[in-house]
């Protein structure tokens, strides 16, 4: 991709922030085990969902020229034991905002999640 100006990046980041907080619910991130779909347009297999974390509203903590940082999530109980391999972020309307690969796009202290255990995210920075 060609390089974009700072003003163009800020406009994209602001539009993303607005998208994240749209809808009547809070934005969420769900961690899954198994193979990540090749596109956010492909439905995730709900049987592979390990835990869904909820962001506060608004979910945007900070907007800079290079990233959007989301507020920390709530602490939630894991609903299924497994190894988190990817995550999907949904906006407040339940629309897919982004898919993240665990290990490269998002890091967890421990990817082995155990049912009944808890998880929260301290920080997510999304870059356009």
Explain this structure:
- The structure is a single chain.
- It contains 1 helix and 11 strands.
- It has 128 residues and is mainly beta.
- The strands form 4 sheets. A 4-stranded antiparallel sheet has the order 2-1-7-8, with helices on one face.
- The longest helix has 15 residues, at 6-20.
What's the short version?
The protein has one helix spanning 6-20; strands at residues 28-32, 49-54, 60-63, 68-70, 76-77, 82-83, 86-90, 96-101, 112-113, 118-119, 124-126. It has 128 residues and is mainly β.
Features:
31% strand; 12% helix; four-stranded antiparallel β-sheet; three-stranded antiparallel β-sheet; 11 strands; 128 residues; mainly beta
Topology, pairings included?
Elements: H1 6-20, E1 28-32, E2 49-54, E3 60-63, E4 68-70, E5 76-77, E6 82-83, E7 86-90, E8 96-101, E9 112-113, E10 118-119, E11 124-126
Antiparallel strand pairs: 1-2, 1-7, 3-4, 4-11, 5-10, 6-9, 7-8
**Per DSSP, what share of the residues sits in E-state strands of 2 or more residues?**
25-35%
| Count of strand segments | 11
Structural class: mainly beta
Shape: globular
Rg estimate, integer Å:
15 Å
The overall pLDDT, averaged over residues, is 91
- List low-confidence stretches: none
Q: Give the CA-CA distance, first to last residue.
A: 11 Å
Strand order of the largest sheet: 2-1-7-8
SSE order, as H and E? HEEEEEEEEEEE
The largest sheet is: 4 strands, antiparallel
Instruction: Give the % helix.
Output: 10-25%
Number of helices: 1
């Amino acid at each position: 991709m060609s390089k974009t100006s700072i003003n163009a990046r800020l406009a994209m980041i602001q539009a993303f922030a607005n998208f994240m907080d749209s809808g009547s619910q809070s934005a969420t991130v769900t961690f899954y085990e198994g193979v990540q779909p090749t596109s956010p347009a492909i439905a995730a297999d709900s049987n592979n969902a390990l835990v869904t974390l909820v962001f506060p509203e608004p979910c945007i903590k900070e907007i800079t020229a290079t990233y959007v940082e989301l507020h920390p999530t709530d602490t939630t109980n894991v609903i299924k034991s497994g190894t988190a391999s990817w995550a999907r972020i949904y906006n407040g309307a339940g629309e897919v905002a982004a898919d993240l690969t665990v290990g490269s796009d998002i890091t967890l202290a421990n990817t082995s999640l155990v049912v009944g255990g808890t998880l929260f995210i301290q920080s997510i920075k999304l870059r356009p």
